[in-house]
Specification:
Elements: H1 39-47, E1 54-61, H2 64-74, E2 82-84, E3 89-90, H3 93-105, E4 117-123, H4 130-145, E5 151-156, E6 163-169, H5 182-198, H6 220-230, H7 238-251, H8 259-283, H9 288-302, H10 310-321
Helix pairs in contact: 2-3, 4-5, 7-10, 8-9
């Protein structure tokens, strides 16, 4: 029996968090790892920090003009070829515009706010073999959308890291419209990482908390507004102003009135304990490879970033600038309650 099978809660490292009271379609439920893939191999990938794939929905087009502009953008005004569902290469601005016109002409929308296409970016860190990444993106698109939805994609290699812009036609051949949920994005990340590994590219698709990260990534519109504000070119985003006000209140000794943040920090402590238990179990194994992996797991936990939220980071920054608040402790995660026996 694998040492990992003896660790209670090991599977929870990969499992998404179930949220009660939500529609089933909105609850993220990760698919199981690909068949034949060993959990130990996945653990090794994570603790040895295999590159994480990025699969992101960047927007939707709402009309023919918007669709045409997006296809022109991802094809660099026809300079880059767009590859279609059947493997055809669309080269030149005229071919790109014809594709957009075809999608728009056949899209008989019953709602004015329905999208014509969904824009997706598949990305990997700098240094990734872009030829293999393009092949993985092709396989991902064919398996994910090829049966029901038309699509076109283009590879970009001029932005410091290779990424693929994938435009998927919303209206499917079955008459249904593509409306991806959070669960779909998680499944897409898993599938894209699998296609990369099949082509010899180290890649993983894990949850933030699995990697010791508690702070959510800043949303692109908020980030752009914040950057403009920091350059003196616009007002501060309202959500950022509200965060500063609350952080200032907490820095002066106010109470934490957001219990879910405390749950996030407590959950991260539980993740670290699970990794520690995994390291102990592997360390007792007679297999030298298991013992080596145990050392890697221990090193991974020691180098995890300190649990943080945006609010706590702002509190620390405010206290660094205002000496009168430095002695006040930041809100901490609650201690685990003893389990009932």
């Amino acid at each position: 029996m694998s040492p990992l099978g003896q660790v209670r809660g090991f599977d929870e490292l990969w499992a998404p968090i179930a949220r009660g009271g939500r529609r089933v379609a909105d609850v993220p439920v990760l698919p199981p790892p690909p068949r034949g893939r060993d959990s130990k191999a996945r653990l090794a990938n994570v603790v040895r920090r295999a590159p994480e794939v990025l699969v992101k929905i960047t927007g939707k087009t709402r009309d023919g003009e918007h669709l045409r502009a997006h296809l022109e953008y991802i094809s660099r005004d026809g300079e880059l070829p767009l590859e279609g569902r059947d493997g055809e290469q669309l080269q030149g601005l005229e071919a790109v515009r014809e594709l957009g016109a075809d999608w728009a002409a056949d899209d008989l929308r019953t709602r004015s706010d329905a999208s014509m296409s969904v824009s997706i970016v598949l990305s990997m860190p700098p240094g990734t073999d872009y030829i293999r990444m393009r092949d993985a993106a092709r396989a991902f698109a064919r398996e994910t959308f090829g049966e029901t939805h038309d699509y076109a994609f283009a590879l970009h290699t001029d932005a410091g890291h290779p990424h693929v812009h994938l435009s998927v036609r919303s209206l499917g051949e079955d008459g249904r419209r593509l409306s991806p949920r959070k669960a779909d994005l998680e499944a897409w990340r898993q599938r894209f990482a699998e296609k990369l590994r099949e082509r010899g590219v180290a890649a993983e698709a894990t949850l933030r908390r699995t990697r010791g990260i508690t702070k959510k990534a800043e949303r692109t519109p908020i980030r752009k507004m914040r950057e403009r504000y920091e350059r003196g070119q616009g007002p501060a985003p309202r959500v950022l102003e509200a965060a500063y006000r609350e952080a200032a209140r907490l820095a002066r000794g106010g109470t934490m009135d957001r219990p879910w943040e405390q749950r996030i920090l407590a959950r991260q402590a539980a993740v670290r304990r699970a990794y520690a238990a995994v390291a102990q179990a592997l360390g007792r194994s007679a297999d030298p490879a298991d013992r080596a992996l145990a050392k890697d797991v221990g090193a991974f936990v020691r180098t995890m970033p300190e649990p943080a939220t945006r609010r706590n980071e702002l509190i620390r920054a405010i206290r660094a600038l205002r000496p009168e608040t430095r002695e006040r402790p930041a809100p901490e995660a609650p201690k685990d309650r003893p389990r009932r026996r």
